[in-house]
Amino acid sequence: MHPISVCIIAKNEESRIESCLRSIKPFGFEIVVVDTGSTDRTKEIAEKYADKVLDFAWCDDFSAARNFSLREASNNWIFMIDCDETIKEIDVEELTYFRKHLSDKVGSVSRENLVTENGVLTLNNIDYTERFFNKKLYRYTGIIHEQLTPIKGNELPNLLLHTTLLHTGYDMTDAQRQAKYRRNFTLLEKQLEQDPQNPYLYYQLGKSCEILEDFARACTYYDKGLEFDLDPELAYVQAMVVSYGNALLRTNQANTALGLEGVYDEFAPVTDFVYLMGNVYKDNGMFEQALEQFQKALQMPPGRQNGSNSFLPLYQCGQIFEMAGDSASACILYQQAAALGFLPAQERLKKE
């Protein structure tokens, strides 16, 4: 048997688990599926592909379920994946090298988050998440939005692997989204009572409010999370700053968002932050500064938000030129954004 175990926790995932398992099966990994109380065909489907299909009594604790799957895995090296994910690409030789030569490290993967736009499954953003590790050194903590945590010490040394997952978990109906994030919010509040000094929980509470379109409440949680002494190199801290700025703009607090100038130097390398600052300046009528930020974003690598270094700043620059009465320059910018598939730019050109 291959010395890597793939662990999955599942509940009522009959519509998605087969695609997930099919993408894993060809690589010969041990597959361990832990079911937390399905009432559909999830277990029946899993048994066609998995080496182990086990039951776990749900206790409102995602870490407990994940750690149970680790204990039941035959191998020490774990690759964690979710039912709403499939493997797009994976370098098995790299995983072998990682096991043998980087045994105390954690491997992160790229995850392409897909959502349906105009009937087409489209890339929304890309994030990076820790998924490959030795279970003797790491375990999960937190009842929701669980985090991989060293069993000894505090450091989580991780390296990005040449592995990419496709994730459709955000591609839901409005009713499904409301139900999922209201459940998440309840569990996060429960966890916050136990750990009120954890800024990551404030970030996740803010994200839940944002997804439920309660942007004013999201601002409150982000503001609280940013009161802590945070490391600007951490991905969730960067995401929280950007999400806070966007929530402020959504609640007509553009002037308050200007306060992010105070942390500009710390987050200047982050593409999404530079694009955000362009929008902050634009909404404050500071068009020269906005154009400067949008032009800077165009020269940067891709951010988490799809288009933050391409069609989005192009479109915003077009809007600024259009407001200034320079229709010719605006049209060129809209054309460039439209050529990259940005529908609002295409619609704008139809009105010319």
What can be said about this structure in brief?
The protein has helices at 17-24, 42-46, 62-72, 92-101, 174-194, 199-211, 215-225, 235-250, 254-257, 264-267, 271-283, 287-298, 311-323, 327-339, 343-350; strands spanning 4-10, 30-35, 52-55, 77-80, 85-89, 106-117, 120-134, 138-141, 147-150, 158-167. The protein is α/β, with parallel strands linked by helices.
Straight-line N-to-C gap: 63 Å
SSE run: EHEHEHEEHEEEEEHHHHHHHHHHH
CATH C-level class of the largest domain: Mainly Alpha
Strand content: 15-25%
> Any idea of the CATH topology of the largest domain?
Serine Threonine Protein Phosphatase 5, Tetratricopeptide repeat
The total domain count is 2
Strand sequence of the main sheet, in spatial order?
3-2-1-4-7-6-10-5
Largest sheet: 8 strands, mixed
Number of helices: 15
Total number of beta strands: 10
What structural class do you assign from the helix and strand content?
Answer: alpha/beta
Known CATH architecture of the largest domain:
Alpha Horseshoe
Describe this structure in words.
The chain is built from 15 helices and 10 strands. The chain has 352 residues and is of the alpha/beta class. The chain folds into 2 domains: 4-167, Spore Coat Polysaccharide Biosynthesis Protein SpsA, Chain A (Alpha-Beta Complex), CATH 3.90.550; 174-350, Tetratricopeptide repeat domain (Serine Threonine Protein Phosphatase 5, Tetratricopeptide repeat), CATH 1.25.40. The protein has an 8-stranded mixed sheet. A two-stranded antiparallel sheet has the order 8-9. Helix 5 runs antiparallel to helix 6 (199-211) and helix 6 (199-211) runs antiparallel to helix 7 (215-225). The relative contact order is 0.07. The model has no long low-confidence stretch (mean pLDDT 95).
